[in-house]
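2024-03-11 09:14:02 INFO receiving multi-entity request
2024-03-11 09:14:02 INFO entity count = two
2024-03-11 09:14:03 INFO echoing inputs for audit
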Amino acid sequence: MNLALRHQIVPDSPVARWDARWKLAALLLAVAAIASLDCLPTAIAALGLSVALLIASRLPSRWVRPRLAAFLLAALPFLIVLPFTLDPDGPGWALFSLHVSERGLAAGLAVACRCLAIGSCALVLIGTAPVHHTIAAAHRLKLPGVLVLLAALAYRYAFVLADELRRLRIALWVRGFRPRATRHGYRTLGRVAGAVLVRGADRAEAVAHAMRCRGFDGRFHTLTSFHTNSKDVILSLVAVLTAAALVIWDRI
Amino acid sequence: MPMASQDGLQTSGLTHVYADGRKALDNISFRIEAGESVAIVGPNGAGKTTLFLRLCGVLAGPQGQASVDGLDPADPRQRKKLPETVGVVFQSPDDQLFSSTVEEDAAFGPLNLGASVAEARARAAEALAAVGLADAGPRVPFQLSGGEKRRAALAGVLAMRPAILLLDEPSMFLDPRGRRELIGLIRGLPGTKLVASHDLDLVLDLCSRVLVLDGGRLLADGPAAKLLADAELMDRHGLEVPYRLR
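2024-03-11 09:21:47 INFO inference complete, emitting structure
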């Protein structure tokens, strides 16, 4: 099993020591600011700063690289399509018989940079504190309780469902099934997806029963305590002011 | 640790019909005295889990059919007090360990009951020590072995100090050593215990009395050693006489 959020040891770094509440608030604002950037230079600057934060986090590169690649993959369609579809009559270059638009290429690159910058911030958030600390921080920041609870349960049960999926794959394998692009193959995979969904629903019901038996009334509680010092505040202010500066530069 | 039960547990004509019309429990009546350890045995689909869900108030039903330490699980106002009175350990510990760490999970119930963080932490530590997981607090549940998960799930219930414990297939997924440890652990717990299990050797170790349930009906109620040795009764209800009584 290799889930994106699999619990791992958090390497010590200034970013790891940053109070999870301040870090979450600052990075959420930074992500919102990055998502609002339009121009390529500001998107490149945002990517540079995010990668610098990622490096300062001292996260293992073998953990970071495949996850960043997944973010790049998400941006790839924009990088491929926009240069050929946006502003087709504007300035650009000829590539075989196709016209590559300068504006389209810049827009595609900006999307890719924004995507990677947001991905870097997300990895910093996930990798520099145990996920349950970040979830508790979200609760302390008064984010909607249902969302916090859903995040906590999703984190806990993603591993259980992944294990079930692994067992189903083994069960298929030992009965001779090999995934192929045939009608039988698609039908089998559809049934496996259905079985995982049904098991997930069964489990959700059983978990709800167990929670109610232990007095759950819809409110999220946690034992996690937080301590803020001046470094946390300064770090957060730097992050938010930098994000604000990027947005202003982008708008000028 | 569980509190002392005052009134035990009683059902009177307890019946449960699911929305699809299937009758899971049919006119079940029994009384379990405070401090007694009783087993419910029966084949799959006998209604054991449904009975537990009715007794802990998860499944709704008509009022007046059950009394758990003096509380009616079908009465919405009394049902709110049930979590501090009755603790349920479910079949699959994965369904019960829903928090991010073992300590958070053990403290989940006390926090819901209104305990302060310090009190919840103390209760969680006490419960985890009682099940032999004193050092497992910071661990995440999916890193635990099957036996540890079972004990952590039990700790989550013990931290609420319930007077009555309902244990649904407690030895499921356990290896012989884990099973032996669990039997010792459950046997040492005070309070009223109702154990649903197919593991009849475990039943002999833990309970002096047995209720035989099949097809939603209560078919026998008597001393464990006598009922479990009745080969015809066991065979008729999809069970087997435990090795020790053969």
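2024-03-11 09:21:48 INFO post-check: The CA atoms of residues 9 and 32 of chain B lie 5 Å apart.
2024-03-11 09:21:48 INFO post-check: The first strand of chain B starts at residue 9 and ends at 17.
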